[in-house]
Amino acid sequence: MSVVDRTYHYVYTDVLPEDCGLAPEKRRTGLFLRTAQDLSGPKVWSTARKLAGPLPPGTLVRVARAKGMQRWAVSYTCQRPANAPGGPVADICLQYTADLNLDGIGALKLYADPVEAGRSAAYLGLRSGGDGSGRYDRSAHFWMTDAEGNLDTPAIYPNKAGFLTWLDRLAPTASGRDASSLYGRPVYWGTWTVRPIGAQ
Asked: At the N or C end, where does the chain have fewer CB atoms within 10 A?
């Protein structure tokens, strides 16, 4: 949840309304938004507004106002393209909108076609973790935020645009356990920087 201009923005994934009647394995998900001005009363949230979709199965998306900018930052699970360094492995992707207009989130092209493959050129190129054979998992990623849910960084990284954490279910645990549970898996972190570029 991100608070911008005294408005709470709750961005989440859910089943697309047109797929609710399908069998669970055939249901697709999308990215939705609800907003509220005051959380103290009943039924304070707006009706759901679809921002993007359909998304690949199991997609995890985070949205927050970018640090020091009037833009939304959108991070999401993805696969690197086959021609990327390291090949088509799991990664975390990151994109910024042009401004704080919420329509900009839906305007981002999160995935290349076919969407179900989850490939994106906006990958961060994470290298930590893995099972030693070239397979990686980037689960449960999150980032540091301020008290209003917007991107922030530790004081020792004032020039960084964000501080990201994730875990790898394929990396060996200290106990040597092989189960794919999120609990007890190695956790990694990284930072990133943002710089302006000319029109392409």
From this structure: C
Tell me, what's the pLDDT at 200? 54
CA torsion through residues 131, 167, 156, 7, sign: positive
pLDDT band at 17 (very low <50, low <70, confident <90, very high): very high
On whether the CB atoms of residues 7 and 34 are closer than 8 A, the answer is: no
Sort strands 61-65 and 49-55 into parallel, antiparallel or unpaired.
Answer: unpaired
pLDDT tens digits, one per residue of 28-85: 999 999 999 998 888 899 999 999 989 998 899 999 999 999 999 999 999 999 888 7
CA 49/CA 52 separation, integer angstroms? 9
